[in-house]
Each structure stands twice: as structure tokens, then as C-alpha cells.
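Late entry, evening session. Most of the bench is empty. Finally got around to the prediction I had been postponing all week. Sequence below, unchanged from the version circulated by S.P.
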Amino acid sequence: IVNITEYYTDFVHRPVKDVAKASMSGHGTNIIAGLGVGFESAMLPTLTVVAAILSAYFLGKSSGLETNAADPTAAAGLFGTAVATMGMLSNLTYVLAMDVFG
């Protein structure tokens, strides 16, 4: 996700250059180009997060844990998703600290 964000916000890549080029002709084209790039930039991170959630669910489901429910491996899939979520959230404190304190 960091690389995707860098692509859409760094001045050496195409999206930022396109918005800068659109701003040469006026305010309206700048707004339209910026909105277009903003809408485009939201798709890849969304697909990446969805892929991570689905892979965590199916990896948890294939772990071998079972319950007495109608689908005995569904709880294991949810457990895999919870473990992956906690793993991602555990890095959040370091990222916030680096962002705030440099």
C-alpha cells in the first residue's frame, strides 16, 4: 500500500504530473483532473486490503481448527482474520510514532 500511495502522490510519477499539467489551463480542469486521480487512486489499496482479508480468512480456514457448528471451519477462518488484523494493527503504533516524531 505504501508503494501505491507513493505512486499517486510523488511528483516524479504520471498522476501528479497530469494534475500539474491540467492546472496550467485553469481551475476547473485542475479540479476535474484531481478528482479523477483521487478516484483512481482509491481502487488499488481497496483491492489490496480485500485480498489480504480473504487470504487471511482462507488460510485460517485451512489451518485445521474445527468447531461443532454447521460449517466447522468457519470459526477458524474468522480467527485467521482476527490474527491478521492484530498483526497489522500492532505495526500501527510504530508507523504513527515515526510519522509524529520523525
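Two things to note before I forget:
DSSP finds six helices and no strands in the chain.
The chain has a mean pLDDT of 89.
Will write this up properly tomorrow.
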